[in-house]
Known about the structure:
The complex is a heterodimer of chains A (about 110) and B (about 110). By secondary structure, chain A is mainly β. Helix content of chain A is about 0%, strand content about 55%. In chain A, a hairpin with a 2-residue loop joins β7 and β8 (about 65-70). The N and C termini of chain A lie far apart (about 40 Å). In chain B, the strands form two sheets. In chain B, strands 2, 4, 5, 6, 9, 10 and 11 form a seven-stranded mixed sheet that branches. With about 110 residues, chain B is mainly β. Chains A and B meet through β6 and β11 of A and β5, β9 and β10 of B.
Amino acid sequence: AxxxxxxxxxxxxxxxxxxxxxxxxxxxxxxxxxxxxxxxPSGELVFLIRRNSxxxxxxxxxxxxxxxxxxxxxxxxxxxxxxxxxxxxYFCALxxxxxxxxxxxxxxxxxxxx
Amino acid sequence: xxxxxQFPSHSVIEKGQTVTLRCxxxxxxxxxxxxxxVMGKEIKFLLHFVKESKQDESGMPNNRxxxxxxxxxxxxxxxxxxxxxxxxxxxxxxxVFRPPGEQYFGPGTRLTVT
Lengths: 114, 114
């Protein structure tokens, strides 16, 4: 069965601190895709990254980085030197090859305190 | 380029009434998806259109929900009659390619059934 678990419901950190959002997934497929979405206060879901199951290389985009480890079925997201504008709900998600749906976790609400 | 738009942004109706939600995808996107987030739970897939055809409606909760996409442009999601448990945020997304192509999400419609 497909499942995405984001154990951290809510996190608060002070601006400029680093913060890591955890994501653990379950799937029986060998080909799948992992995503992170950001939901700012305006409500829309903003795509951040997509990773396929054959590419375990970590990715860095500015202050954002992602650590994909198949051995632990995890796809964690780190924000370095956090800023107040990073405050949002972040969703980790999974899609299996050939499937139309994206399976979302419950989300982690991140508060960056000034 | 205009993003995915949804109307209304918020709807409050009484149990037993009918509500119709509308989604306008990004122009040229053949794929259109509906998702729903009930309070405190995951964002869950409802259905997927390719142009005007329903490709996958496995997530539709019951026959009180009817989705249409006449002409393959905008889509409507009708709930009739609405029940209390239908309250939540309904998201629409569109994409050029089928999954795992990037899905662009709208801001959602918050539905409150009292």
